[in-house]
Amino acid sequence: MEKSSPTLESRKRKTAGEDEDEDVKLKGKRTEQVENLMKVSRQEYLKNREKKKLKQLRDDIEDEQFLFEKIEKLSEPEKREHLYKQKIVELVSKEQQCDDTGEEREIHPQQAWEENQINNAKLNFGSKDRKQKDYQFVFEDQIEFIKSTIVDSDSDVDVDNEKLQRTRNSKLIEDRKALPIYPYKDALLQAVHDHQVLIIVGETGSGKTTQIPQYLHEAGFTRSGGKMIGCTQPRRVAAMRVAARVSHEMGVKLGHEVGYSIRFEDCTSEKTILKYMTDGMLLREFLTEPDLASYSVIMIDEAHERTLSTDILFGLIKDVASARPHLKLLISSATLDAEKFSDYFDCAPIFKIPGRRFPVEIHHSKAPISDYLDAAVVTALQIHATQPQDDGDILIFLTGQEEIETAENIINRRIRALGTKIAELITCPIYANLPTELQAKIFEPTPEGARKVVLATNIAETSLTIDCIKYVIDTGFCKINCYNPRTGTESLMVAPISKASANQRAGRSGRTGPGKCFRLYTEHSYMNDLEDSTIPEIQRTNLANVVLLLKSVGITDLLNFDFMDPPPAEALLKALELLFALGSLDKDGKLTKVGERMSEFPLDPMLSKMIVASDKYKCSAEIISIAAMLSIGNSIFYRPKDRQVQADNAWMNFHVGNVGDHIALLKVYNSWKETKFSTQWCYENYIQVRSMKKARDIRDQLESRLERVGIDLTSNVNDLEAIKKSIISGFFPHSARLQKNGAYRTVKHPQTGHIHPSSGLSQVLPRWVVYHELVLTTKEYMRQVTELKPGWLVEVAPHYYQLKDVEDSSSKKMPRGIGLA
DNA sequence: GAGCACTGC
Is strand B within 7 Å of residue A431 (CB)? Predict the structure, then answer.
């Protein structure tokens, strides 16, 4: 974005002038009630004022005659309670009708649960009986209109289907009105009119993600100039699923009026007015549209998760908002962080919407526990032995694959020892790197008379939800990735979770019914030892990518950029230094031509630079394959415990001639391509199919970006020197020289490292290498290593290396047989 | 001769 946005003074004037009209119009409408709703949660409201009266009402409700007289005198919550009962009866009869007409109904457990939830949520429904009819009418109209577009595009629809459609639509309207958010619709719209930025605290199950964009659309926020309402999600599946749900509710085809946009898949069209997308995708849109002119509203959902992308979005969007007073911002967060968000957005008001969830009983351990793995197993077996079988499954949170496998073994062994004295207990491991076929196991329904125990990493905290979990066992730990800007190393560390995380984990037990959570740490420890929330990603990650992106949207002064939680200055400086070395920034910190080309690629800057440089060496086809393989990380090879030797041998096939890991990855990709992307081939070579498919998608994307930056796709598969020089053009800061003791030392900064044992060169120990990344585990290990000739460093990066840096003064002191590869 | 939390572009 051009940083030459209006000065603060002129912005203020502009804002005041343009908002004045609206202000005058709406001031009258603003009621005390609206203000109250924004401060007090509905649950508190109910609890404090009307508890007693409600109880009495329940006793009286049998007598209809009496009730109708009484209902006129009732307060709002009482009316709701009454209508709730009425609506349940209506809904049940409607459901039966639906079934009678033979409507196609998926019996997916998720949907069944949703419907159940919706029914439960009827408590909050329909405070305004008369208006309901109005709404239905208005809606029928709208649906007729939209339905015609369905008929247009789908000529097979016959009269019967149309009738069916109508039943379904009216049920959808009912469902929508049943969501806890519905009674707040008017107040919410009012608040959006009154304020530019609104923090929304929407508890789980409130319906905020699906309903708010629709409300705004109905209220006319999409009418002006065909502008869109954008809603970001931290995960791809969420964006897709919500978009599908909303398009269904609105009776339009997915990808038309309602669409989603995620990497590799843009399911939107010119008609699209409600757009769901991943937060990273919106961030990328800043590159082509710095003022987000095509949006009238941006909603950042799940902001409390504080992903890297949301944090950057905050800074950028705050700036856009001050330049565009008519752009509305909605930030949805969890209760704990709401005030922090409000402070950041200049005291934006907080709007609370209650959710619907089941109560969860929380148990803490009495005394501190030293062996949480053992304690988790014991607790699980205890639950299994003492609680009724058909009552619900168990979910245990552990830190990683190894722990999961050990726990699985112990549980199985102990259950076997107990024999028939106890009901069957099925162990289901789940972690991101588990092959897809095995992951599916957790979604299979539990057989009659048995119980499931799911052993999961953090993946079960937010990314996937498992039905029928009644018991959660929380060990209180997880693995987090930490980047050390000083050494440039990354490491995975086992760390205590935050309070927010602990509550999230506990909530996983209350999805289908009341649940219980057993925490393997004391309450004292929860109160005093755990942080309130996890350290945001932006403070513990390599920022090279972020800095390049910010530079290319025109942010010049990064150290003073308005971060909600600023990253360590050292990490920013390190990133700037790297970008300068790569030639993407000039002396004044401005983006160069090379930098502009690099920012087109959704990769780490070193990988992007490698691609840009491959133009010169005429091997872009090979380099994008390597970049794709490198960027999917270390989950390419599958190494089951019982076949480690075979797996290692398969891997070594790609290393013939000690070509180095980069070229080996290229060979893997090309061999797979030759088999026409065969799944069987992957199994035979102990390679993860999922990873390879991802690599193919990334490669395809990179290929299309080549065109955009004007690089020809040229292939030169046999010229290894050209390929290696391209790699070095991006990774020259990661070059290292062999020491006497068999370790390596980086050429510029004194950093030692060792070739990782999984590398094809770990036995070869070439004198000079370039590595992809440095990880700290038991030692500092260089992962993905390729041999280089020192002369190339001076040739490729003369601004960085002089001859004296690469003079091989120590060659004579080398032990015999080392460093001669 | 080792160790792979989770996302996203």
Answer: yes
